Amino acid sequence: MKRNLAIVAAAFAASLLQSETVKDREGAVRNDRAKLEHSERWIYNDWQRGFAEAKDTGRPLLVVLRCVPCMACMGIDTQVLTEEKELAALLDQFVCVRLINANAIDLALFQFDYDLSFTTLFFNGDGTVYGRYGSWKHQKNSQETATAGYKKAIEAALAIHRGYPGNKAALGKKQGVEMPFKTPTAIPSLAERYKPELDWEGKVVGSCVHCHMVGAAIQASYREKRQPMPEQWLHPWPEPETIGLTLASEEIAKVSEVAPSSAAAQAGLQAGDEIVSIDGGPLVSIADVSWALHRAPPAARLLLQVKRDGAARTITLNLTEGWRRKSDVTLRASIWPMRGMALGGLRIEPLADDVRSRAGIALGALALHVTNVGQYGMHAAAKKAGFQKDDIVVEIDGLSKSMSECQIIDHLLEKHPPGEKVKAVVLRGAERKVLELPVQ
Questions:
Q1: What does pTM read for this prediction?
Q2: Of 1, 35, 112, 270, which is most buried with the most CB atoms under 10 A?
Q3: 240/253 Cα distance (integer angstroms)
Q4: Count of other CB atoms within 10 angstroms of residue 140
C-alpha cells in the first residue's frame, strides 16, 4: 500500500469539495497540487516523466487529465484518488500521471474528447495508445461515483499490455493522427494568451489551458484561415447514440439498446451484444467507440467484432453521408465559442408549440426562440446587430424550414467565412424585422 495515500486522498477530497462548494477555483487547484505533488503513486503534472518511467520499468502508463476547477466529474475523480482496495490494486500496476492542464500536452499523443472534465489514456512507454476512458454519465452528474466501468477499462488496458508488442498492429487505428499544431499553446488563439507553464506565483487558473479550450481552438483555427470547418470538428467525438447504440455505462462496450431503423439496427446489432473491437482495434471503454466514430470518414464501413451469447461474429456497420450530424453538440462546452462564431452570441431553441400556435407559425416552419443574447466580445455581435432576447427567428440565410440550433450552426460555419453577414428575419411581438447577423 502506498504510504499515506489514504490520508492524502481523503484530505484532497474534503478540500476539493469545500473549495468547489464556495467556488474557490484557485483554492481547488492549489489544494490539488499541495496534496498530490509528493504522492508516491501519482506523478504530478509531468507526462514526460511518466513516459520515461514507463519505458524504464516496462509498466504501462495511465494518464488522468482532470480539470480541477470544474464541478463535472468530481465524483469519479475523488474515487480514483481514494484508497479503494480494488481500484488501488489496479492502479499500482501502472505508472500513474495526473495532469491538471493542457498547456503543453503533445497533441500527437493526447487525442481524446476535449469536452470531458475527466479523461484517462492508457499507453505503452513507447507512446503506443492502448485505449481511452471518458464518461458523459460522470460529466453530466458531478456526484456520480461509479467506477465499475473504469475498473474494466483498466483491466482491458492491462490485458492489451500483456500482449504487447505482439498486438501492436491491431492497435494501429487507435493511434493519434497528425495534427497541425504540436501543443495547444502553439494554436494561434491560445498562443496569444497562454504559456506552456502554469503561473503558480500568480493566478494559476487564469494561466491554465482547459481541455475544452483545445477543441475550441482547433475549430477557431479553421475560421482564422477562412477555411470551412470540417464535419469532424463540427461534430467531434460522436456518442454511440449517434448511430443508434446505447451502451451500458459500466461495461466496456455492451449494447443495452438499439434504436429502430438506425445504422446499428440495419447492421444487425442487438441488445446484449458485446463489441470487442472496431476495425481490429480492441476496445477498453465506450470512449474507444467514440474514438473510432470520430476518426470515421463521412461515409464509412466499419468492421465490428462482436460476442453474442458467447459466440464471436463479425458485423459490418455502414455509415452513410451525414451520419455524424445526428449528434447534438449543444451540451458540449465547445458550443459556446461556436455560438459566437456562427450566431454572434445568440442562444436559440425550438419555440414551444403553444407559443408557435399563438404566433400563427405553421408546423414545419422555422421558429427558434432567442433565449439569450451575449453581452461581451464576439458574443455581443448579435446584440450590436439589433437582436433581442425573446425574438423568434423565422428565417436565416434563406432557410425557413424547421431546423435545430445545431443544424443552423453547421450551415453557417460551413457556408460562410468570417466577416460575412447573413439575412435573418425575426418576429418581435407583432412586428417583423429584417436584421443582418454577422458571421465571425
A1: 0.92
A2: 112
A3: 10
A4: 11
